[in-house]
């Protein structure tokens, strides 16, 4: 009879605490492996030597990524548990005190408990997020928020330094609906190089334009106006000048980082078949397409579009109290994916005015429905379309991968066009001889002189 062994792993920043338990034995073996390649190789060797059947990890992503990659490359299946469930289980079984060894032990015991109850399979990691789109997309979102916070901080510093400069910058581009002037690279470069606004009156227009690298005529005119305005600005304290320079430099660095990530995403989106399918819709840009694709991770893990809609926060759950039966919105969903679909719905109605979905949105608004709820209906319709498109691309790519792996190249360099799923036709015009070797299996040898392919 096979003895079931389970390893529970508690990931940390630099190492992995492992606890090995065996069915029917109380002894627990603890080992620690680091994130070094040699140590991870030793971990795989240890797992194979001990013939471990269940490999369970607390959490997923983050510090678990190096370990997950090693396990995938070694073709070893593993299971991921929510840290919240493990914490509750550890408190009930092992006590209140927390340390890495107890966490690893709790993971192993919880995995063994789920195995005995035939519930372990639902925790198996069968899909994995993209290594390119998810990190880039989330970094873009994070740096964009940081840049917005820094620019808002810069506005406050300018307000303290000079009210005249604050009002001049705020009124610039206000009439034509563009973004605030502090989101533009040229003004951040100017403030980072010459943070002392009073000194602008002693600089030439050529020096100011060269520092800001401004090229547009309207921008150069504004720089001329700012130079004239600097004459009326009183002396700025030295500490305020330092704050202005640090904030402008930080915002400039963040904006440049956002621009670089955006450029990289534009290239990768066009190369990927799934994201290139999404951007074929008018109004769906590379950022929105990469957000949707990266958060879905693997479209084949959703049986139908209803499951995807529920995962994206567009579904409702059944709520029963006594004889009352109703549905309530669920709060267990991917918030990033929901925001991406809302953005897609808004942009789609703007850039596709003649679409029936845009007409559907207008009809809902005319009936008095709230704007948010109307966009939610459009987003739900887009989920059906995107699910169908992504699933078709997934099927095509899987077929290409399967066919590519089955191609045979002969000595003359020709590729065998015959695939395993393509039946071989036998020329029945030639006589065949059939010899029965084994009555139980009915093995037949077909001898023919020609095969039609």
Quick structural overview:
By secondary structure, the chain is of the alpha/beta class. The protein has helices at about 35-50, 65-75, 85-95, 100-115, 135-160, 165-170, 185-195, 205-210, 215-230, 240-270, 275-280, 285-295, 305-310, 335-350, 355-365, 370-405; strands at about 5-10, 15-20, 30-35, 55-60, 80, 315-320, 325-330, 425, 450. The strands form 3 sheets. It has a 5-stranded mixed β-sheet. It has a two-stranded antiparallel sheet with strand order 6-7. The protein has a two-stranded antiparallel ribbon with strand order 8-9.
Describe the structure.
- The chain is an alpha/beta fold.
- It folds into three domains: 5-123, Ribonuclease H-like superfamily/Ribonuclease H (Nucleotidyltransferase, domain 5); 134-269, Helix Hairpins (Orthogonal Bundle), CATH 1.10.287; 274-391, no CATH class.
- Helices cover 53% and strands 10% of the residues.
- It has helices at 37-50, 65-73, 83-93, 100-116, 133-161, 163-171, 185-193, 205-212, 217-229, 238-271, 273-278, 286-296, 305-311, 335-351, 356-366, 371-406, and strands at 5-11, 15-22, 29-34, 54-58, 79-81, 316-321, 324-329, 425-426, 451-452.
- The strands form three sheets. The protein has a five-stranded mixed sheet. A two-stranded antiparallel ribbon has the order 6-7. The protein has a two-stranded antiparallel sheet with strand order 8-9.
- Strand 2 and strand 3 (29-34) form a beta hairpin.
- Helix 5 packs antiparallel against helix 10, helix 5 (133-161) packs across helix 12 and helix 15 (356-366) packs antiparallel against helix 16 (371-406).
- The chain is globular, with a radius of gyration of 31 Å.
- 26% of the residues are buried.
- The model is unreliable at 407-453 (pLDDT under 50).
């Amino acid at each position: 009879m096979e003895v079931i062994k389970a390893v529970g792993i508690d990931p940390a920043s630099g190492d992995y605490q492992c606890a090995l338990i065996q069915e029917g034995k109380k002894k627990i073996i603890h080992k620690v492996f680091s994130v070094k390649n040699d140590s991870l190789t030793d971990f795989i060797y240890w797992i194979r030597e001990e013939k471990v059947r269940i490999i369970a990890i607390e959490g997923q992503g983050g510090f678990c990524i190096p370990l997950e990659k090693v396990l995938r490359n070694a073709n070893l299946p593993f299971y991921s548990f929510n840290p919240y469930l493990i914490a509750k289980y550890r408190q009930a079984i092992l006590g209140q005190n927390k340390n890495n060894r107890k966490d690893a032990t709790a993971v192993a015991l919880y995995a063994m408990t789920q195995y005995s109850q035939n519930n372990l399979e639902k925790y198996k990691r069968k899909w994995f997020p993209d290594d390119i789109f998810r990190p880039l997309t989330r970094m873009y979102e994070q740096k964009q928020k940081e840049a917005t916070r820094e620019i808002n901080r810069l506005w406050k510093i300018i307000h303290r330094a000079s009210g005249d400069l604050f009002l001049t910058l705020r009124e610039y581009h206000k009439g034509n609906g563009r973004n605030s002037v502090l989101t533009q690279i040229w003004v951040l470069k100017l403030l980072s190089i010459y943070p002392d606004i009073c000194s602008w009156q002693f600089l030439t227009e050529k020096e100011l334009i060269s520092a800001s690298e401004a090229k547009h005529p309207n921008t150069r005119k504004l720089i001329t106006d700012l130079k004239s305005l600097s004459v009326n600005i009183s002396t700025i304290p030295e500490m305020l000048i330092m704050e202005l320079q640090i904030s402008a430099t930080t915002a400039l660095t963040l904006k440049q980082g956002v621009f670089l990530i955006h450029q990289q995403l534009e290239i990768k989106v066009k190369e990927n078949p799934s994201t290139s399918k999404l951007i074929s819709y008018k109004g769906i840009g590379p950022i929105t397409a990469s957000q949707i694709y990266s958060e879905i991770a693997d479209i084949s893990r959703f049986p139908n579009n209803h499951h995807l809609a529920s995962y994206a926060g567009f579904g409702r759950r059944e709520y029963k109290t006594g004889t009352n039966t109703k549905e309530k919105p669920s709060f267990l969903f991917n918030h990033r994916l929901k925001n991406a679909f809302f953005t897609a719905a808004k942009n789609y109605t703007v850039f596709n005015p003649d679409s029936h979905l845009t007409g559907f949105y207008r009809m809902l608004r005319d009936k008095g429905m709230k704007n948010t709820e109307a966009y939610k209906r459009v987003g739900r319709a887009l989920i059906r379309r995107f699910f169908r498109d992504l699933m078709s691309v997934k099927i095509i790519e899987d077929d290409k991968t399967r066919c590519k792996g089955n191609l045979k190249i002969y000595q003359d360099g020709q590729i065998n066009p015959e695939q395993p799923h393509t039946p071989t036709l036998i020329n029945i015009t030639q006589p065949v001889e059939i010899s029965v070797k084994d009555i139980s299996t009915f093995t037949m040898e077909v001898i023919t002189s020609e095969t039609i392919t």
